[in-house]
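Morning run. Coffee first, then this:
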Amino acid sequence: MGQAHVAVIGAGSWGTAMAIHLAHCGHAVSLVARDPQMVQSMSEMRENSSYLPRIPFPDALNVSADVDQAVAHASTVMLMVPSQAFSSCIERIAPIIDSKTLVCWGSKGLGEIDSKSVFLHEIAENFCGKEQLLAVIGGPSFAKEVASHTPTAVVVASAQPEALDRSIALLHHDGMRCYSSTDITGVELCGVTKNVLAVAAGVSDGLALGTNTRSALITRGLAEMQRLGVKLNAHPKTFMGLAGVGDVVLSCTSDLSRNRRLGLGLGRGQTLEDTLNTIGQVVESVDNVSRLLDLARQCSVSLPITEQVQAIFQGVSTPQQALTALLSRPPAAELDDMERG
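And here it is:
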């Protein structure tokens, strides 16, 4: 495709990285931040010193605090905000865009409608209508590496062929290979679940339990993910792809993952508050673990690892007690257990 005008809303590490990538692709990009001082700093320094220091902005990247202006001139709006801000953000832009504006997001979480946990694409449809072109970006993609042009593969999911074609054309470029999927529910579920599993893996490593334990948690976590996904009519193969295995392995094994770092701190005896303060950025699992369990209850699906992560967050169990609870579950046939939990 030719040059597109893209508004990237959210100037954290992921939003900044995507804005840099899109500008390198040859698109005209407006990176929208809500803090005027941050906008001034990025405009003057031509980098985001708070989140991605020493990675320069391309010339095609403009920084703005004016959401209305950026969105009004954009053929694509990319939401790169924490999932808890997604609903207010999509509500904010809905009156400005038309049905041919492509709205895509890299947020990985759940939202709520009428106190019921729902996927972000359901929230987008609620505010923008079912005709709006919608797509989600998933897969193993740490912001720092995307911004540094490290080779990365992502999956873009949408139920609409036009949204898929435009998203792939927008993102696919040197350093980023894009795969398409029509399983938007599966890709979004992977993004939520992998963050919780990264906390569990971090807790295990914080307790110095070794690679056997981490591997078991990853494998059983993937079973939880797939079990719930099948109940939600997601495609089983999605969980073996980039959004599933790819992102789970990345987040559970690399200390670039905030969720893994949170688990490491908890496993080493730090409090939730202290660990979050040390990380200094939004950690999606904290707000999403309860929503994920609510979604599982709606489907009558058991998620034992997710339940224990929630128990640790709530102070109901220590990391060691949570591990003991998982190990004390009765033996089961592996294939049966993958289906029933």
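The chain has two domains: 5-182, 186-340. Good start to the day.
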